[in-house]
Amino acid sequence: MKEGTMTNSRILMQEFDYYSPTTLPEALHFLKEHGVEAKVMAGGTDLLVQMKQEIVAPKYLINIRNIQGLCMIEHGKDLKVGAAVLLNDVLLFFKGDKRFRALSDALECLAEVQVRNMGTVGGNLCNASPAADSAPPLLVYDAKVKLANSQGERILPLEDFFKDVNKTDLSTDEMMTEILLPYPEDGTGGAFMKTKRVGADISKISCAISVKREGDICLSSKIAFGSVAKVPIRIKAAENALRKEKVNEDLLLKIGELIMSEINPISDIRSTAVYRKEMAKILFLDVFDLAWKRAGEKK
User: Fold this and answer.
1) The domain spanning residue 218 has which CATH number?
2) Which long-range contacts (CB under 8 A, 24 or more apart) does 75-79 make?
3) pTM for this structure?
4) What is the distance between the alpha carbons of residues 178 and 192, in angstroms, rounded to a whole number?
5) Residues 72 and 175 placed together within one structural domain of the fold
6) What is the pLDDT of residues 31-49, one digit of tens each?
7) CA 233, CA 226: separation in Å to the nearest integer?
8) Which CATH number covers residue 23?
9) Which of 69, 79, 169, 197 is packed most tightly, with the most Cβ within 10 A?
């Protein structure tokens, strides 16, 4: 259904057709028909900026916010978060849940409230920015993403979804429909922090950690960073070095040095590679300390 076009606008210069399907099959059929010429939009906080800057110029926009199943959070074997759930709704859902505190930490400092009331968790991931705030906590919670086209569905670990700067494993006829989160085990704590220039700015560097402890022994950990590589990444060498070790200052300092050797940040308008390297170690120590304390809290 053609709902309208915009042309000669001061905001969006190119002409496009706008579609707002109410069912997933309808959206997937349209995506199959138009493929590379179409863009899926939920909140539009990234896409519309890119269109204004003439980075992308789709002929068709598919608004998925009216597809009810994509705007829900449901409990099951895994926790299912619809790709079109607003960031602020995800924050409100997880804010009181101590099992996912790294995610609520991240969403609390993700942009301004106005942006969180428009942007979606799926959009934040599909934009595939190395600095996407939702990515590191979702990585340490072993998130998977469900991708669908008119032929069926597939499930992919989130760490395999990101391919390069602003590039994902999505085919031109696919869209993300859900984020799947397994429930953390007892004795697990998580945390997220980032450094930024001002206010709700994009992060210079970010870190999320999930750690499972038994007394002063680290049974396992997951460590992820944003803005230190082409994609948000897990630092698995550091995770392996922590496994079943007694946690003390010397060990953590060594892990911090290991992390510095594992990352490959760039210098850009927000920060320098040197700063990011040094800050990675400091941020790791701060985030691990908070996650470790939370893992020791009584549930």
Assistant:
1) 3.30.390.50
2) 78/144, 78/180, 78/181, 78/182, 78/183, 79/180, 79/181, 79/182, 79/183
3) 0.91
4) 22
5) yes
6) 999 988 999 998 887 888 8
7) 7
8) 3.30.43.10
9) 79
